[in-house]
Amino acid sequence: IVPRFHSPHRAKPELVVLADVSGSVAAFARFTLHLVHALGTQFSAVRTFVFIDDVDEVTRIFRSSATIVEAIARVEQEATVCDTDGHSDYGAAFGRFCERYLDALGARSTVLVLGDGRGNYHPARPELLAEIARRNGLAALSMGMTADFETAIACGATLVRVGTAIFGPRR
Q1: What is the DSSP letter of 27?
Q2: How many angstroms separate the CA atoms of 19 and 43, rounded?
Q3: How far lies 3's CA from each of 8, 29, 77, 126, in Å?
Q4: CB < 8 Å & 24+ apart, contacts of 97-100
Q5: How far apart are CA 108 and CA 46, in angstroms?
Q6: Cα separation of 157 and 144, whole Å?
Q7: Helix, strand counts (H, E) of the chain
C-alpha cells in the first residue's frame, strides 16, 4: 500500500471593504462595489462598510437585494454615513469603525479601503489603521506615500508607495 497525500486545503480569505462614498468618489465607489461583489465567490465572506464621516455596515443590503444595481441604489438611500458636514473624514470614519466593528476582522481578513484619500483637512489618523492591523493579526499594512511615509512607517506600515521620491513628480 502506497499512502497518498493531499495538499492542505487553503482557506479562502475574508474580505472587509471600507468604501468612501462621498461625492468626490461616488462614481468610483459604485464601480468598485460592483467589482468587489462580482468577485465575492473568491472569498469565504465579504463584509462591506461605507463611509463619509460616519461608517455603516451595508452587508445586509447586498445580501437582501436582487441585483448589484439595486443594492448600490439602496446603499445610497439607506446607509447612515454622514454625521457632520458631508465631506470625507477618514480619521472619524476609521475611529467609528474601530469603536463599532473591530469584531468584523480576524486573522484571515483582508481589509480594503477604497477612496481618494482626501480628508478635507481633517486628521487622517493613520494610527487607527495600524490598530486595526495589530489587534487582528493582519500581516501587512499598506498605507502612505512619499509625502507622509515617515508617519506611515511610524504607524506600522509594511508597504509604502514612494514612487515620487524615486522617479520624481508626474508630468
Answers
A1: H
A2: 18
A3: 15, 51, 58, 51
A4: 97/18, 97/49, 97/51, 97/55, 97/128, 97/132, 98/128, 98/131, 98/132, 100/55
A5: 12
A6: 8
A7: 7, 4
- What global pTM score does this model have? 0.80
Nine-digit cell string for 61: 443590503
- Residues 43 and 53: beta-carbon distance below 8 Å: no
Question: What is the helix (H) or strand (E) element at residue 90, kind and residue range?
Answer: helix 90-101
Cα separation, 54 vs 101, whole angstroms? 12
Sign of CA dihedral 112, 117, 122, 124: positive
Question: Cell triple for residue 75?
Answer: 446603499
The CA distance from 55 to 63, in Å, is 18
Q: Which cell is 170 given?
A: 508626474
* Per-residue 3-state assignment (H helix, E strand, C coil) for 36-71: HHHCHHHCCEEEEEEECCCEEECHHHHHHCCCHHHH
Q: Kindly report the backbone phi and psi dihedral angles of residue 14, in degrees, each rounded to the nearest multiple of 5, phi listed first.
A: -100, 140
Task: Please list the pLDDT of the chain residue by residue as tens digits (171 residues).
Answer: 777 777 777 778 888 999 999 888 888 888 988 888 888 878 888 999 999 889 999 999 988 998 888 998 998 889 888 766 678 888 889 899 999 998 888 878 888 888 877 777 787 888 888 888 877 777 777 777 777 778 778 877 888 777 888 888 877
